[in-house]
Amino acid sequence: MRELPSLKNLRAFEAAAKTSSIRKAAEILFITPAAISKQIKSLELFLGCDLFTRHQWGLELTEKGEIYLYHVQRSLAELRKGTKNVMRTKERTIIKLRSYSTFSVNWLIPRIADFYASYPDIVIDIATTSRWIDFNVDGVDAAVRLGSGNWPGMQSFRLVDNVIAPVCSPHIAKLLSSIDDLRHYTLLHVQARPDDWDKWLSEFGPSDMDSYSGQKYESSILAYQAAIQSQGISMGQLDLITTELAKGNLVLPFDKTLDLGKYTYYLVRPESGQNKPELDIFCNWISSYN
């Protein structure tokens, strides 16, 4: 014995219940009124009860018909939703992107919703890493990299300005009266940009200060968190910490900033070997922010 009635009979029942009319249900489903009547009768025989009371003016649901309609509508709605999602997923194009964790959290994620609003059928698969990507081995489409923007065989799109300056908690900032006071505090470094403190101190700081001493972290987001907790002073990339600066979690103790020019973040992709229009769309979108 079958456990479920046929789908066409359920759709006929739903349409007839919505319209209280055999004729209108037939118009909705683009079949004849006779076919609707036959399908409803077949469903009633399957269930062993009447779903409608027939009147000259149309159809009226019985008590069991009301109960069954509730379950049928919920089930068909879920079926339609699931079908749509599966078909949509099948049609979506996935762009595999590798990026730094701090850049992803502080810059990319807050903006990616705008991309999805315009291009809902393109999925950006974001994974974080600080190492250089081998596009021939890692199977990715694009990556966010920190550098001068000139990598052989790569097309690069500049993303942000890389303006750096020391940042710390408000508590430590109150204790700093001059740049020379930096020698009394722990400098917080990031492995992916180990020379930032040296570059800034070469421009503004004491010449006899060890610019490479202090605590080293795998990612900037860890160094910033340590700075927020007053564990030291980090070299901030101002475009990536706008939220923490606005909240007052981090502050600039000095009015000295250094623009590193071309040395900044880029979206990179191989110049050849890719034929993915959706990647072109993403590259144009992300580069429009700079």
From TrEMBL:
A Pfam family the protein falls into: HTH_1
Protein keywords: DNA-binding, Transcription, Transcription regulation
Family the UniProt entry places it in: Belongs to the LysR transcriptional regulatory family.
GO biological process, one term: DNA-templated transcription
HTH lysR-type domain: residues covered: 5-62
Transmembrane segments: none
Lineage of the species this protein comes from: Bacteria, Pseudomonadati, Pseudomonadota, Betaproteobacteria, Burkholderiales
MF-aspect GO terms: DNA-binding transcription factor activity; sequence-specific DNA binding
Species for this entry: Oligella ureolytica
Gene: gcvA_2
DNA-binding is among the record's keywords: yes
InterPro entries per record: LysR-type_TF_proteobact-type, LysR_HTH_N, LysR_subst-bd, WH-like_DNA-bd_sf, WH_DNA-bd_sf
Name this protein carries in UniProt: Gcv operon activator
